[in-house]
Specification:
By secondary structure, the chain is an alpha/beta fold. It has 6 helices and 4 strands.
Length: 248
């Protein structure tokens, strides 16, 4: 069920052990061929399918479209909160829910740039509420909750890549610009691996995409949506089964 569709008395009556999902995404460049709202569109569809499957077993907050996208800021259309500001935004979102008594809070992510600040927000909240063993504070990217299997050149999420391009071709093909089969592969991964190198997008890719969008199809996109939304559904089941105090 969607928090935005409820009255406050109806929310007040909810079991405070219900999983509360906060979807977080972004508005940023996605190469020459995908819209800047790609991450939010894709996460929104994953959420729509997961919500339809779980119904009143979970509460879904409105999708947060503002993300940490400073590494894309050289490209027009990117709208970003700086990392520290974004971290504090996520902390405040979770703090609101904790104040209302909810105990199982799950940030469901749809943008790679959100990972570091969101994990730090979760870490800081746990330190603040270190005496509360009834709190379950979680973060995950939707693409890490289920793997699509064989049939894909890519085996990890890129950016405006085979996976994301396939999903937009399935969800909103009218938003895809040009012939994606003519695009080139831009390697995923990081220079100086296993070290982490600070980076900005324009030094990694001439077009803005990372991965192999030329292999995208609408059929792959539908399979990815089905796989990822099922992964979210399964993970919400794990949250429901938590006994309310243990580590596992």
């Amino acid at each position: 069920m969607y928090l935005a569709n409820k009255t406050w008395p109806a929310i007040h009556e909810l079991d405070r052990n219900i999983p509360v999902v906060i979807p977080i995404a972004a508005v940023e460049q996605h190469g020459h061929h995908l819209p800047v709202y790609t991450d939010s569109l894709l996460l929104g569809e994953v959420v729509r399918r997961a919500e339809a499957a779980v119904g009143d077993r979970a509460l879904f907050a409105p999708l947060q479209w503002l993300g940490n996208s400073d590494h894309h800021i050289d490209y027009p259309g990117t709208i970003s909160a700086s990392p520290r500001l974004y971290l504090d935004l996520l902390r405040d979102l979770a703090e609101n829910l904790i104040r209302h008594g909810f105990k199982r809070i799950f940030f469901l992510n749809g943008h790679g740039g959100n990972i570091v600040p969101a994990k730090q927000a979760i870490f800081e909240l746990r330190q603040k509420y270190r005496d509360r063993n009834d709190l379950l504070l979680l973060f995950a990217c939707y693409w890490d909750l289920a793997k699509p299997g064989e049939g894909y050149l890519q085996q990890e999420m890129g950016h405006a890549c085979e996976w994301e391009t396939s999903m937009i071709l399935s969800l909103a093909p009218q938003l895809v610009v040009g012939d994606v089969t003519k695009l080139d592969t831009v390697p995923t991964g990081y220079a100086f691996d296993p070290a982490y190198r600070g980076w900005i997008t324009k030094e990694r890719t001439p077009t803005g995409h990372i991965g192999s969008p030329q292999h995208a199809t609408a059929g792959k996109g539908e399979h990815l949506f089905a796989t990822f939304s099922a992964g979210v559904e399964d993970f919400l089941g794990q949250i429901e089964k938590w006994d309310g105090h243990s580590w596992l």
